[in-house]
Amino acid sequence: MKENRKRNGKKIAAVSLAGLLAVSVTACSGREAPGKNLATTEAVNKKVVNLFGPMEKSNPNADNVARSAFDRTISMAEEKLGVRVDYRTYTAENYQEKTYDDVTIDRANNNMDDFYLLNPDTIQILGAEGKLLDLSELACAKNLREVVKTANVVDGKLVAIPQEVVVHGLFVNKDMFDQYNLPLPETPEDLLECCRVFQENGIESPIGANRWWLENFVFAQAYADLYNGGNTEAEIEALNRGESKYSDYMRPGFEYLKELIDRGYIDAQKAYISEAIEGDGPDFLAQKTPIVMAYWGAANTETAYGAPDFELQVIGFPSSRGQMPVVSMTGYGIGADAEHLEDAKNVLEVILSDEALQLYTETNKVISPSKNVEVDCIPALKPLNDRIKEEVYVLGSNAGMKVEQWGNTCLIVRELLNGATVDACMARFDELQEESLRK
């Protein structure tokens, strides 16, 4: 188990938490001075709830929309409940070789905090070990979209709830598609044809890729039918019992990704070392590359893709069922044996209430976990949003699957980028499934 945790931990906070907070922390200056929250006797007498996450409380003057939205919901809880939420923060320099996930698991196992911001694989590990409280009885849980429940239920318990649904899609330069009279791709074959045309017109690698998000191509291929064919629960149970093989689902996606690489539509060597947005973003913004992949919030953020000099469209990944959004989940979980359990539950009730989620969603222009909260999206996101409204999507993270999906698939895709065969990648999935069946 320890070895598996370590392996899962290496996929990191940058992969999923980026969609929620981490990418936007660049504008956050300086740390709070020790004792800042203890300035008055009144503050000292307040009840304290401890949050462990990848971020500190932001500077009130920081130009950081995502961070300030989260902080405002925390302030709402503090005011309503008469509590103080202390941020206990992960910083790489403090933990050296330990990733955010490694540290979160250690802290949760030692009951060091009250609630946590968790990555998908950590939700699954801690949920399976009974370290997280069942949140299904919270009032806010009654308002959740089904996709949130599906992603965050472990052994029948809802163990985490996010403040936003993180949706990944293809970001395309519509002007470049129009230049060559290309419709936006619906199927894998459509995308191959678009890439062929772009390459013939001098665009060497039409798809800008990084080392984190290529697994979305795989998920769209692997699970389009599983999540949209009306038999989701039974298919997942068959996988969990070993009656079906993850590798059988994954093989078409890996074969397709290899074809994109073999044809030169994706530069595997560059993708293997490129960070999300930083590695592939400059060429996309400079209109040298017509296609990249990212999460919903990147279309709203000027430091990412929110202010391009061309018409941006964000669509789902090509699949047999058309353009397919890929959804992953971070979430807030409470330690099952938290010291301040009732206060932590009350804080979550406030920050995950429709009132707080409306504030959060309007500020960040994201998809809310609550079915009661809707915010108009920018035109570029409409194709992706339309599919989500139709409840057409696949999950890249699902705590109900015994083999963790998001991080493991990311790592195995990296093996493909580094020259591994599709058969070798499928053997790795078989090994992971066998390990899960032995537990």
Concise summary:
Helices cover 45% and strands 11% of the residues. With 439 residues, the chain is an alpha/beta fold. Helix 4 packs across helix 16, helix 4 (65-81) runs antiparallel to helix 17 (354-364) and helix 6 runs parallel beside helix 7.
SSE blueprint:
Blueprint: H1 2-9, H2 13-20, H3 41-45, E1 47-53, H4 65-81, E2 83-89, H5 92-95, H6 100-109, E3 115-118, H7 120-128, H8 146-152, E4 153-154, E5 157-158, E6 166-173, H9 174-179, H10 188-200, H11 215-228, H12 232-241, H13 246-262, H14 268-273, H15 281-285, E7 291-295, E8 312-315, E9 326-328, E10 331-334, H16 341-351, H17 354-364, H18 382-389, E11 394-395, H19 406-417, H20 422-438
Parallel strand pairs: 1-2, 1-3, 9-11
Antiparallel strand pairs: 3-10, 4-5, 6-7, 6-8, 6-9
